[in-house]
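// run 5 | inverse folding | seed 20
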């Protein structure tokens, strides 16, 4: 079984389409989306359509939630993008049925998903607070916080939210993808895996990031993948929207 895990698309259609094409080449069995389909980027409706059509499981991200309810804790730049995104979802593109389908999809998203056979939990944020809580690499030095996370995990947890890919081990390490040659074996030790961001990486690598969980004949591992996409096309679209700050385009070039 191969399961592709994508997260934090942030309405970046160019990145999402390249990632979906790469996933198709890997011959995966299913695709899970770990939230934040929308927010920040220029194509929220189109990205929702792609996720609806291609993902077998999707969980709620904080930007998805913000489109549905009053945003909590968003900075002014993000808040302006949320309101613009809501307007886009309200007015199309597409038929009234397509517009309703997108809103219905967002409104029915669960906060978490469990795979009992794998012993895995899938969330956007953390095992403790599935939608909004961040787990940063430096949190490995906060032993009490990390213990609280791992107490809630049967074996594995897969998440997004920080846009920084890597593996947190119960023994207190954070292992970035390049430190494990982009492949990490899933054994008996509990781990939390951040799958990175499709549409807005923040680990200084501008390429889209996602992960594949492979569970075949007792061999379990997670593989991180980086995918180039026409970033300047996304930047151009962001620049053309007054409500989206140019910084949201600029950061895509540097992966910050």
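// decoded
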């Amino acid at each position: 079984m191969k399961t592709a895990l994508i997260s934090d698309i942030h309405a970046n259609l160019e990145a999402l389409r390249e990632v979906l094409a790469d996933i198709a080449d890997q011959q995966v069995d299913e695709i899970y989306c770990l939230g934040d389909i929308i927010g920040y980027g220029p194509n929220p409706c189109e990205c929702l359509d792609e996720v609806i059509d291609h993902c077998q499981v999707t969980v709620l991200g904080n930007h998805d939630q913000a489109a549905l309810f009053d945003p909590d804790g968003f900075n002014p730049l993000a808040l302006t993008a949320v309101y613009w995104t809501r307007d886009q979802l309200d007015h199309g593109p597409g038929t009234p049925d397509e517009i309703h389908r997108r809103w219905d999809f967002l409104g029915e998203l669960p906060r978490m998903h469990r795979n009992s056979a794998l012993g895995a939990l899938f969330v956007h944020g953390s095992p403790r607070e599935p939608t909004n809580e961040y787990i940063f690499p430096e949190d490995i030095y906060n032993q009490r916080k990390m213990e609280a996370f791992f107490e809630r995990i049967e074996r594995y947890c897969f998440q997004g939210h920080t846009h920084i890919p890597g593996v947190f081990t119960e023994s207190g390490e954070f292992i970035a993808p390049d430190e494990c040659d982009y492949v990490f074996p899933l054994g008996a030790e509990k781990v939390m895996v951040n799958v990175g961001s499709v549409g807005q990486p923040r680990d200084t690598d501008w390429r889209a990031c996602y992960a594949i969980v492979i569970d075949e004949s007792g061999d379990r591992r997670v593989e991180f993948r980086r995918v180039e996409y026409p970033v300047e096309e996304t930047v151009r679209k962001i620049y053309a929207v007054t409500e989206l700050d140019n910084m949201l385009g600029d950061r895509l070039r540097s992966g910050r």
